[in-house]
Write a structure and sequence with these properties.
CATH class of the largest domain: Mainly Alpha
Distance between the termini: 45 Å
Strand content: under 5%
Number of domains: 3
Shape: globular
Low-confidence stretches: 209-218
Radius of gyration: 22 Å
Mean pLDDT: 83
Structural class: mainly alpha
CATH topology of the largest domain: Tetracycline Repressor, domain 2
Length: 295
Amino acid sequence: MNKTKKRIIEAAIALFTEKGFHGTSIQEIAAHAGISKGAFYLHFKSKDALQVEIFRYYTSLIQEEMDSAVDPGLSAEENFRRQTGVQISQMLRHTDFIVMVIREQAFSLNTELIGFIEDIRLSQSEWYRDQLTAIYGEAIRPFVHDIYVITEGIKSYYMQQFISNPQALNPLALTELVVRMTGQAAEGFLGGKLRPLLDEETLRSLFAGLFPEEKETGDMSGVIEAMRTILCGLTIPRATAQYLQSTLDFLETQAAAGAGADRTAIEGALSVFRPYPEFRDSLQEMKKKFGLEDE
């Protein structure tokens, strides 16, 4: 990442933390970064694109350090402790980013960010699966979802308690607490003392009916292409056209996800086309294919 792009990201984080995403203009970000507004657009096509890049930037920082913390000569439990410590230390180091995330709860209009956040959650869940099976073996798999929720809940809420004064938090103590509570949860499930709330059968029932038949989320490329064609013929501001185009890209990825698609995100994405009557028929077709009810 070049220096100017990094400077824009850091300026945006500071302003988003202070004023909020919607309360900050691109001109203010550019001025804070010491560049022109035109230079901003050389690096980011929009403020929404910058928001996504901020998440990518911080996620990559944490991932790189987590990868470097792994020592093949240590036990799986010790590597889990080391990587958990990295996560907590990085969160303490970048409290401005955490404040921004907590403050900006309404991501529904940025469909690309919604998709990225879901990818992060999936990746984190898979990381827990790999770590726990390395420590406890395959017997732990039915309980991974519950342990993931318990462990992340402990970590996240402790971080929120100390967010206004991160210097008061001992990262080593929190790391040890998280690791210990993870172990107790795993032993409780494996020993039969605890029953999972998120076993595979429950998860299937929770998401059953989201997409009733797989064929309903079948090939939607024709509908999406038709919407792209309609979009090209609309007389609307360039920024709006770009936003609608990125929304179609998001819908395309959700169509490819099949039963793993996110219904809430899809409904939000479709809603941005409602002000344009030209998309009415296409929206009805999309709703049918995604198995969404009519309003």
